[in-house]
Design a protein that fits this description.
InterPro entries: NAD(P)-bd_dom_sf, SDR_fam. This protein is an alpha/beta fold and about 300 residues long. The protein has 9 helices and 8 strands.
Length: about 300
């Protein structure tokens, strides 16, 4: 398919059900909007349901709202139970919501805010919803990462919650690296099942509310450079939309902007950092995530073999 992939390339989505986290604004809103306009039934899974309803009113199509606070495992479980009661199936789970460069703080469960929200919340949600996807041919779990997975990024197993020494940039990098490692390990586990696949995407540098916590020292130069290095949320959502809908997409692939340094441009396949492909680390992260969240995936999704 052409590298100039746009929303015009999205196949008809009638009959498909999509759940998009963080869909009341920014990339999530644009993702939900595009899917609904192509016929999907879309659930906006959002922390603030008033804002979610306002967003839904701006979208043409079959759109509903579900309360979901990824900083609370109780909320994740409640949301998953509600979705399971109202949806017969899920074709697309778009793990989009996230926070970036937050000051040191914790989720309601005591997890470092970025790791807890960006990775652990989505890990738990996916595990709780996966059996609504496994019977559905062509279903996909799409998790949104970032080029930040390359910046000061590692999985700090000796201090996953950054209690000893906090770096907002390093913690963000860890969470986005975890998003990719989760995708790759999930895909290996799904491969034996043959229906659902796991895919990742990143938006490049998009002008969204996500950057509101950027450190002051970086904010001014980034603002000055913004016209050159950022793209609209609608463009930033394209890699996610291609990962979710392109018929040629395969499990374990990663989409990002096709321009220089993957900053902006139409989506194409990209390669993540060498660290993200470390199978032993992916498996260790999976076990840690299960232990921290108390969520285990369906028993018929087998653990992968040790490398």
């Amino acid at each position: 398919m052409s590298e100039q992939w746009t929303t015009a390339n999205i196949p008809d989505q009638h009959g498909r059900v999509a759940v998009v986290t963080g869909a009341n604004t920014g990339l999530g809103f644009e993702t939900a909007k595009a899917l609904a306009e192509r016929g999907a039934s879309v659930v906006l899974a959002v922390r603030n349901t008033d804002k979610g309803e306002q967003a839904a009113a701006r979208i043409t199509g079959d759109v509903s709202v579900q309360a979901l606070d990824l900083t609370s495992l109780d909320s994740v479980r409640t949301a998953a139970a509600a979705l399971r009661s109202r949806l017969p199936r899920i074709d697309l789970l778009i793990n989009n919501a996230g926070v970036m460069y937050t000051p040191q703080q914790t989720t309601r469960d005591g997890f470092e805010m970025q790791f807890g929200t960006n990775h652990l919340g989505h890990f738990a949600l996916t595990g709780l919803l996966l059996d609504l996807m496994l019977p559905v041919p062509g279903s996909r779990v799409v998790t949104v990462s970032s080029t930040g997975h390359r910046i000061r990024a590692a999985i700090h197993f000796d201090d996953l919650q950054w209690e000893r020494s906090y770096s907002r940039v390093g913690a963000y990098g860890q969470s986005k690296l975890a998003n990719l490692m989760f995708t790759y390990e999930l895909q290996r586990r799904l491969a034996t099942h043959g229906t659902t696949v796991a895919v990742a995407a990143h938006p490049g540098v998009s002008s969204t509310e996500l950057a509101r916590n950027t450190p002051a020292a970086l904010r001014l130069p980034l603002t000055a450079l913004a016209p050159l290095i950022t793209q609209t949320p609608a463009m930033g959502a394209l890699p996610t939309l291609r990962a979710a809908t392109d018929p040629a997409t395969l499990g374990g692939q990663y989409y990002g902007p096709g321009g220089r340094f993957e900053i902006k441009g139409n989506p194409r396949l990209v390669i993540s950092s060498p660290d993200s492909y470390e199978v032993a680390v992916q498996q260790r992260l999976w076990t840690a995530s299960e232990n921290l969240t108390g969520v285990t995936f369906p028993s018929f999704i087998p653990a992968t073999q040790e490398p």
